[in-house]
């Protein structure tokens, strides 16, 4: 977001330079040309008029583009209230979240805690919040059973620490049916998450 805004500011600065150039009087330009090259042919008034039109047109297009760019940046930025509400909603959704793992221990319902939290925060962002821009940074000491992730979003300085604890839940085990509807022999282990969040990075 900062890069996009910096680009928009640069475009506005360039537009201001072009306007300043268009405002330079013809006599000053003629005097400068004569000082640099006295034998240069005189520039007709029509050329100055055309140059001003071109410069002001480019400047106007730049201002319009920058204003539109600021609007795009705003649409992609979260507010503190949006992130706070979304994190609370995601915490409620994930606290008690049940899932199964495959025989190798990998969750079947999500890839990792970071992607799960990002998805849930984004889902709880509401109609005005962006559909992207949420980040969940795992801590170095995280394990499958106990993890801390710092949740942030584009455009917001505030951060939240999500604490995820995984507990074995045999009541959530699942035994898929076997071939041709016969009883299955493979049981997928069930787990439940306990999720709490607090303001501040982990």
Give the topology.
Elements: H1 2-22, H2 26-36, H3 45-75, H4 80-94, E1 98-100, H5 113-123, E2 134-138, E3 146-153, E4 160-168, E5 190-199
Antiparallel strand pairs: 1-5, 2-3, 3-4, 4-5
Helix pairs in contact: 1-3, 4-5
Question: Would you kindly provide a brief summary of this structure?
Answer:
The chain is of the alpha+beta class.
What do you see in this structure?
With 202 residues, the chain is an alpha+beta fold. The chain has five helices and five strands, in the order ααααβαββββ. The chain is rod-shaped. The chain starts with a helix and ends with a strand.
**Could you list the spans in which at least 5 consecutive residues all have pLDDT below 50?**
none
- Which range does the strand content fall in? 15-25%
Shape descriptor: rod-shaped
Rg, nearest Å: 30 Å
- Main-sheet strand order equals 1-5-4-3-2
CA-CA gap between termini: 23 Å
Q: What is the chain-wise order of helices and strands?
A: HHHHEHEEEE
Features:
5 strands; alpha+beta; single chain; five-stranded antiparallel sheet; rod-shaped; 5 helices
């Amino acid at each position: 977001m900062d890069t996009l805004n910096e680009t928009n500011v640069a475009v506005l600065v360039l537009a201001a330079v072009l306007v300043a150039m268009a405002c330079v009087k013809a006599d000053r330009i003629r005097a400068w040309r004569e000082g640099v090259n006295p034998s240069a042919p005189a520039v007709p008034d029509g050329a100055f008029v055309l140059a001003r039109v071109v410069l002001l047109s480019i400047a106007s297009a730049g201002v319009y583009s920058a204003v539109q760019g600021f609007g795009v940046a705003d649409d992609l930025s979260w507010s503190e209230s949006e992130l706070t509400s979304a994190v609370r909603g995601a915490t409620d959704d994930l606290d008690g979240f049940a899932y199964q793992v495959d025989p190798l221990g990998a969750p079947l319902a999500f890839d990792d805690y970071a992607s799960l939290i990002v998805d849930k925060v984004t889902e709880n962002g509401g109609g005005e919040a962006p559909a992207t821009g949420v980040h969940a940074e795992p801590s170095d000491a995280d394990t499958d059973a106990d993890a801390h992730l710092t949740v942030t979003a584009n455009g917001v300085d505030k951060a939240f620490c999500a604490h995820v604890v995984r507990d074995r839940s045999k009541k959530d085990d699942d035994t898929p049916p076997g071939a041709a509807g016969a009883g299955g022999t493979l049981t997928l282990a069930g787990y439940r998450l306990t999720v709490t969040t607090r303001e501040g990075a982990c």
